[in-house]
Write a structure and sequence with these properties.
CATH architecture of the largest domain: 3-Layer(bba) Sandwich
Distance between the termini: 40 Å
CATH topology of the largest domain: FAD/NAD(P)-binding domain
CATH class of the largest domain: Alpha Beta
Amino acid sequence: MGVGAVAVIIGAGPAGLTAAYELLTRTAVRPLVLEQSGYMGGISRTVNYKGNRIDIGGHRFFSKSDRVLDWWLERLTLEHTAGGEAFDIHHQGQVRRLRAAAEGDPETSDRVMLVRNRKSRIYFRRKFFTYPLSLSVDTIRNLGWLETLLVGLSYLRSLLAPIRPEQNLEQFVINRFGRRLYRTFFQSYTEKVWGAPCREISAEWGAQRMKGLSVRKALAHIVRQARGHPADLGQKDVETSLIERFLYPKYGPGQLWEETARLVTQLGGEISTNWKVNRIEHAQGRITRVHAVNEAGETVRLRGDYFFSTMPVRDLVEALDPPAPEPIREIARGLLYRDFITVGMECRKLKLTGLTDNWIYIQEPDVLVGRLQIFNNWSPYMTARPEHVWIGLEYFCNEGDGLWSRPDAEMIALARAEMERLGIADPADVLDATVIRMEKAYPAYFGSYDRFPEIRRYFDDFPNLFLVGRNGMHRYNNQDHSMLTAMAAVDNIVAGVTTKDNLWAVNTEQEYHEERRPPESAQPVEDGAYGETHVQS
């Protein structure tokens, strides 16, 4: 790591920007960031449409990593609540009581991290079910006593005779919830999300996104709630899908990444937008140059000492010069992705009044919409007119298919019609709408994914190349996982470590391990990881 060394970073999402900032503050390496789009944050960006802001996919800010929590709160000040409420933050094995300062007032300051209550429900049979599912009076009433009894018997059967070996997502969910609950609340929705049968999706996806969540854990959580527990934003002892409070930037997730980008350039890093990487040279086992092109057809060549890639693995393999071995190219061509459309709609009001949900899972099979976000409930500052309801209807598709290719006007018409069919909104109350498309939003755990370890081994042999982030690792990471992979890569550069095991260990362990930043002369310690919402997020 010599003075004057350069790191070329492909992508200005959470992983790429985190890597750039960490390099600037911990090393003498100067980062050059190439971003294909014109915005910061990748899928974690905030889209501003006429003053109404869209969070693509919904990003709760919570983490079981002290390092990430501190990183966030160094950039955006914790909200100062009216009562001066204090929060417990676990930090490096110690509990600290954090009370927000007066500058955290969102009415007078923009650089604020709000503290929000999490609420999400399932909309099924035109009724609301609590999420995660619980044996509440409302759940039993909605399902009926007979169905509740059958669900319970099905769960006991799975508990006593689990499917072994556990090879796919269907088996993973059945083992934890029972076959009947799987068919009722998981199967149709998950297949709507992924466009593939659950039996074709790797069980690894469930292990990463659901971790230890099960009926037993959900019941234990209810007991803990009844006893009461402190308002801990770290929430290390809570299953991730059960976390009830989270942090959220005043103007959505993109606000954090726009602030990070500002700091990167202020510290001497460079961020260039609208440059697509189309060629990556390598020689003698090292990456040497990156070529990129812009919309005007201009090209640029960048030489570097270190290279960070958050671009889709399929594209990374295709860009290599000389080409990767044919077996690696074959696997890369078989890697699949799921794409995403959000229809933002400003409504005078909703038919269903009093909704305090952040998002609602639309389980109904007679509509294509998969999830509904209510942006007012993420942050009241996300909407230009607080008296209106600003919502996002989320559709899952494949780039180039019929849904993806629909003109914006047709997508808006579809969204209006489906809101009317579901009894959620009257088309006459829709005042304005817009359509946002996000390609490669979700790396798929089917296709050639079962052979992905071969690709990992191939790229791990390049000592100066670090695959980080969601698409960079073809792994369904949350933004804090993506950040942790970038931090781990910089740890390795600082310590002179060439193995990549600690990067790939992020978001794989069932249990959280307390993490401390390693001293510069030591082997980096593997960071902890966790899963996020559930099979439907």
